Amino acid sequence: MLFQEIMRLEPFEVATVLVGDTRGEHQVKAVYVSDGSNIPEKAERGGAFFVCDTAFGDKNNKEFDDNLKKYIDCLTDKQAAGLIIEKHTEMAEVTEDIVSYAAKKGIPLIIIPYETAVTQAVQQLYYSLFEDRNRQDESNLFMKELLYGDEQHAILRLTNFNYKNEKQHIAIFFSFDKTDFDGKMVEELALVMPINLSLTLFSVVYPDEDGVVVVLELSQKEPVKDIVNRFLSAVQHDMGDKLNGNTVSAGVSSIFYKPERMKECVDEAKKAMRLLRGYNICHSARYFEEIGIYRFFFELGNDVELEDFMMQRLGELISYDKEDNSDYIDTLETYLDFGCA
To answer: What does pTM read for this prediction?
Structure first.
């Protein structure tokens, strides 16, 4: 679940949001109750931290702000989902300076009254996380069957995922630009996808053999390219040092409505990603609808030799177009579109 969804839970109806998760990038993956003196060493990325403000000193303690800032720094290092402070009436106020500091660090910050039953709040959070994990397991089974099993049977199961035929959808394939990565890297990539499976919009995340497949319903508010760029920025940031100098790119399918096109569009996204790798373009996105002449070659087959041949034959022509600002590739595409006439 996203950190911003915490406010929908009953114990948080009286909470105050000082720093919100406006971009929807902070997913809660674990819950911790801390005394504030230290962050648990085994704390996972995506942790939502509960702490009482008494841990940072009383209202007469001049070091209150400094102690709280140090705590926020630790949360940043842990890539936490956010901080929830239980506010005692006799304690110092959280200043505007602290709010600005948390916002600068990108850590969502919520204040809850001392009377709030923290145990009840934590229990509800755990239950929500449990539901999210069950849904992720179901989506993995669905995508595995769709891509590698009985496609028609998988489509029948879409009723469990709030799929709407009248809505626009896209498939995105995320993978690493350097191909010397293992399955653990793919699993890690799937975990940091800035997508919330409990939202009303349809979405699935599936760790495939050499990348992560994301299929999602499009919002009318955000253009496709903005969504893809936001995802790329978020996963690159959240993967951090685990990338070991690698970068993440994405192939994007055409827009589709009917679920019968989902598998085809996942394949489109993978083809677009292959083009990026073929030209060693890093940390970027390629859209299937914009690959032009390359569609002709993909329709001939999926052999590696054919792909290598395509790159060898067209690579020089593309480079020439870029250097001389010419349009020979467009001319060749038009020639093929008209049956080589």
So the answer is: 0.63
